[in-house]
Amino acid sequence: MRRDRLFWGLGISLFVLPALLGCSRDQAANSAPTPKEQSIAITVSPVEARDLERRVEAVGTLEADEEVMIYAQVSGQVERIMVDLGDRVKAGQPLLQINQADFVLQTQKADAILQQTRTRLGALDGRDILPAEQQPIVRQARANYSDAALWHERMRNLYKEGAVSRNDVDTAMAKRDALKAALDSAQDQVRALRDQLREQQAALDLARRNLQYTVVRAPIDGSIKERDVSVGQYIAGGSMQNTKLMIVVRHDPLKLKASVPERFQGQIRPGQEVKVQVEAFPGRDFNGSIARVGPAVFTDTRTFPIEARVPNREGVLKPGSFGKARLQIRVDHGVPFVPEEAVYYFVGITKAFVVKDGVVEERQIAVGERQDGLVEIVEGLTPGERVATSRLSQLSGGASVQVVAK
Fold first, then answer.
1. Peptide bond into 253 cis (omega under 30)
2. pTM of whole model > 0.85?
């Protein structure tokens, strides 16, 4: 009987306990506030309208504006080198000198031959060459011919009077014709001498030019990129087997060659501003401008080439450096921006909590560029709305809030 009472009491306890637990849970559920009854103190910020510069970013390589390989025009032994690697040079500045001894002798020989011909043409002591008709040999031959022609005419008149024989007339005529041939020969000789003089003058000019070529000069302003010869070395010049002497590069301005995606066709034009950064100077912008835009798109990369000119007066930028370029293509006005703290990321979804009439609304958004701690809103918000910027993890859509700071 005692055992039966024990089982009975235990059964009642098991029956009553769940009921009591159920009542407790109901009371707890009834006492917990619903999500709409939450009241949380937060800070908010307005969606700000800003002007946004739309830019294109491109990467490329800085190259020298001009790069010239220096060769000699004549062959010879290097006697002196005036510059070395890294030196800055001006156009026309001497870089290297070849031994001049042989070239001086060639010039002197050509000048001596020329002076001999000038003397034969009557141009002594640097005087001008006389016209052909005034040359001494021509004047002498003409005088002889004139006398012979006059004598022949006199013999003809005397023959008509019967004072001389026909043989005398024929002898005078033969002498006249011979002296006429002598005159023609003198004139031809003068013309030949004048042609010879021009040839000898060209030979002298060539010898003088080769003498000048023994001093190799810089063709452009720039810096010495390479020096490939040494003093005493024999170099070949003026042929297909020329010896490379140096490389001169013009480093101001530099040109940046880069490629831009094809979707930006028509938005990039010569003259647009470019800002370039290099790894050697992090955070520093070097201003430039678009110089050329490629006319075609590369089919393998779907990009088109551009070339920008970047001033380099200080010479701090080096050709061959990797460069990042930013190009402004337009300015959009009234673009919505919110603080970075107002953007909430969850499982690949970007959201913001909009506060309106004391109630939070959870809204999905799309973001764009960032600047000065703000994020561009591409889709989902409009200027003038307010978004929560604190305690985002405690908010849920439809919750009531108490704004404590704006």
1. yes
2. no
